[in-house]
């Protein structure tokens, strides 16, 4: 799997965003400093603990980490693919002897790395505002890798189907962000009426935010709102489903590369 | 050894348009092969089918015996492509662009760096190695495309209009370089609009039109297929053109200037002189014009069926040779976006 060709493309993709911190790492860092300052410090001081024992600013950390991670993983993959298509330099990759799976794993891997780096930056910023003790480290790492890879994989699809840069903006601003914002980033599901709790369970982002919150803080809304038979193992089930979904998305990516969707005539 | 390129009944359809029509072509290993044809003939579509940028509709295409779709990795590893379009990674200095391309072909980072330096020196832009693509002049960009094709040390070098829009000096530099490469054993497939280029460089040429192969021959063979013109200046004007049945394809007279089109000017001239003198004409001067490859090319492609037109389909598909203009026009708004994410 880790052929020289794969490593070359992976390295190229990593260097692309690492060399442009003003475009890639600075914006989410500044945005999250503002989130923590305004929602955490200024407003958070006036908001009761969303769940017992967890202050509002601490409650925010996992959701903002997820928001930053998946947005950047998606954005990196979709931009890299679409920009390469638009300027046609993706031909350098497509005319190479790399297998389609190697191409996809290199793009997804690098984009997931960017998402994870942003997630860590946001967690570090959060730590500057509030002490954090990681509750379930292994589970947290596994969940973060899975959701970063999932959204990097979705970003590949976005980059292949987009016809112009506006399409990328639409995907990120009008689909991704609303789902994340209604994914219990800024509130606990326990604060909602039961009907909205059940509606929220239809939003896949809820499970991602909740899983990361469980990994980071040891608390899961699912313990309270999920059906009783499922509640105790909810985080593990969520991780399992997300992993399966990621595998499916990566398989779709490879298939699209194989048929040349959006890439060849 | 299998041929460098072998296609059989290769078809590419864009909706109702057949950009390649049952194209069967063989390019032998070590050959310098030219593809000639007007815009929309299918030359770029053919090339892109070999490198994986176009998926064929039917037929087979092999590179050194490897099927371009089922054994695409081996086929692509053998090919170095210098395309018409400036499709170069704009994020990195050109030396790194070449290193990345070499890396994709399985060449270690250390060796890739050495090769990048080597090919940059070979095409004469080593001093620009730390510049990004956008800052190069047009001629340097063209050289870089060649360097990128060479950095993987390909067995088959494909050059798609390599000298389009370049100055005379660069054109001669490129000719010299590709001739050297061919002499070193690299098989070369060249597409060009410049007949002189094909005539000068190629062992054989294929003339394509409307996705079809019109003919394949050596440039010399092709030239024998045309008609020569014998221009005769008579001592005095004649009233009517002499009848030269049997060998003349056409005779025109303007005052004392007589032009006779024949198959082989050199062989026919003595007979013509004899006949004219027998008719009472006195010859003041005679000149034989050999058919140029360009004239033969025009004849061959003009006589082809033009009921299928390329322009209508390329608007919707962006498929073949017209892609260069499309690429150029769509790049403009992109610059504003570059580096955003």
UniProtKB/TrEMBL annotation, chain A:
Domain (ABC transmembrane type-2): residue spans on this chain: 19-260
GO cellular component: ATP-binding cassette (ABC) transporter complex
Transmembrane stretches, start-end: 25-44, 56-74, 104-126, 138-162, 174-192, 236-257
Membrane topology of this protein: Multi-pass membrane protein
GO molecular function term, any single one: ABC-type transporter activity
Entry's localization field: Membrane
Alphabetically ordered keywords of this record: Membrane, Transmembrane, Transmembrane helix
InterPro entries xref list: ABC-2_transport_permease, ABC2_TM, ABC2_TM_bact-type, ABC_2_transport
Major localization class: membrane
Protein name: ABC transporter
Gene source species: Natrialba swarupiae
From TrEMBL, chain B:
Similarity comment: family membership: Belongs to the ABC transporter superfamily.
Keyword tags: ATP-binding, Nucleotide-binding, Transport
Sample GO molecular function, one term: ATP hydrolysis activity
Keyword Nucleotide-binding belongs to the record: yes
Species lineage: Archaea, Methanobacteriati, Methanobacteriota, Stenosarchaea group, Halobacteria
Pfam families named among the record's database cross-references: ABC_tran, DrrA1-3_C
Annotated region described as Disordered, given as residue ranges: 302-341
Annotated protein name in UniProt: ABC transporter ATP-binding protein
Biased composition (Basic and acidic residues): 327-341
Organism annotation: Natrialba swarupiae
All copies of domain ABC transporter, residue ranges: 5-235
